C-alpha cells in the first residue's frame, strides 16, 4: 500500500506519477479526452458536423444529444466491431474514457440510437459524405468497378446464394462499388448475393457529379446494356472479355462489345486494364481494418446500415491522414 505521504505529480506527458520519498513508484496514464485512441476522429467529426444545421425533431422534448455526438458513437461502434445498439449502449456504459472523448455525460438509450441514426442517415450522412469527398478531391478520371461477397447468417431470409471468384459458393450479400484511382468510393450499393454484377447499372447514374472518363471492370461487366448506359453518361467502359460460349470475339452481336475487345487486347487498353485489380485492396482494407464482413448480421437493412458507417469511417480516416500528411494507405502497424 502507498502511504499517505506519497505525493501526486502531473507531468507534461499527461501521466499521473506517484512519488514517495523521492522515488517514482508508479506512472499511470490520465483518462483525458485527448488521450483516447479515437480523439482525433472525434474532433474531425465535430468539425464536419458543425458545418451543417442540426436535424430537427418533428415533435417531443428538446434533444439531449447533438448529431455530432451520435455520429461519434457510430464511429466507436465501427472501430470496436459492435453489432447492435443494445451492445453499443452496454459497451459505452463501461467506457467512461470514450464518453469523455465524445463529450457525453450520459449514455443514450438504444431506442434513442435507433431513432436518431435513422434521421441522420436520411439527411446529414450524405452531406457529410459529399463534404469529405470534396475535401479529399478524388482522382476520378480513371475509376474501378467491382463487387465483393459479404457472408451473413445462415438464417437470414433476405440473403441469397451466390458465387465468388475466390470464396466459391456463399450465402449472403454483395457490395458493389465504383472507386476512384486513389481508392475513394464514389458510388456503391448492397444487394443480395444472387444479384448479377451486370445488373448494377444504378451506380453509373450516381456518377453524374464526378468527372469520370474511363471505367475499368472485370469480365462480369462485359454487357451491351452497361456499355450503352456508360455511353449515355459520357463514360468509356473497358472490361475484360466474357466469351459467353461465343466461338470468337468477332462473332459478338453487340458493336460495343467488339470495340471493347479490340481496345483491351492491345496497346494502351491492355496496360490500363491491369490497374483494375487495385480495387481489391480497397475491399481488403474495409474487411481487415473495419470489419466490413459480419457473418452474424441478418437482414439486408442491418447489413446496409453496417456498410454505410464502415465506409464513412474509412473516409474519415483518409481525411485525417491527408491532414496529417500521411500518404501511405498501409495498415497502421505496417507504416
UniProtKB/TrEMBL annotation:
<protein>
    <submittedName>
        <fullName>Transposase domain</fullName>
    </submittedName>
</protein>
<dbReference type="InterPro" id="IPR012337">
    <property type="entry name" value="RNaseH-like_sf"/>
</dbReference>
<dbReference type="Pfam" id="PF05598">
    <property type="entry name" value="DUF772"/>
</dbReference>
<dbReference type="Pfam" id="PF01609">
    <property type="entry name" value="DDE_Tnp_1"/>
</dbReference>
<dbReference type="InterPro" id="IPR002559">
    <property type="entry name" value="Transposase_11"/>
</dbReference>
<dbReference type="GO" id="GO:0004803">
    <property type="term" value="F:transposase activity"/>
</dbReference>
<feature type="domain" description="Transposase IS4-like">
    <location>
        <begin position="140"/>
        <end position="316"/>
    </location>
</feature>
<dbReference type="GO" id="GO:0003677">
    <property type="term" value="F:DNA binding"/>
</dbReference>
<dbReference type="InterPro" id="IPR008490">
    <property type="entry name" value="Transposase_InsH_N"/>
</dbReference>
<dbReference type="GO" id="GO:0006313">
    <property type="term" value="P:DNA transposition"/>
</dbReference>
<feature type="domain" description="Transposase InsH N-terminal">
    <location>
        <begin position="31"/>
        <end position="115"/>
    </location>
</feature>
